[in-house]
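Here's what a typical entry looks like (Ribosomal protein L7Ae/L30e/S12e/gadd45):
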Amino acid sequence: MKNDRFHSILGISKKAGKLVSGTYSVDKYLKLKKVFLVILARDVSKNTYKKFSRMCEFRNIPYIVHSTKELLARAIGREQVGVIGITDEGLAKVLLDAAKEENYGGE
């Protein structure tokens, strides 16, 4: 699977306590300005996408659409998750880089 690096970094972030998942938690942390990156699964509902993309744009927080609910959930040991918020600035940058590498054919 080409997105191993991205998903393993998500798993590390979870173990380190540096992410929140699910619409309620991510919404709450966004409003508290404690999120540095939002990850939306490709298969979230249009309403969920609209809500979080607007919240991120309004607060100037980067967001990416990546993977599926199932793959994101597996990476962090949950059943299903469509929205993840990264609460560590350094990990947010690493995840953004990992996602860019995948999209542009990097390692």
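The longest strand covers residues 37-40.

More examples are in the samples folder.
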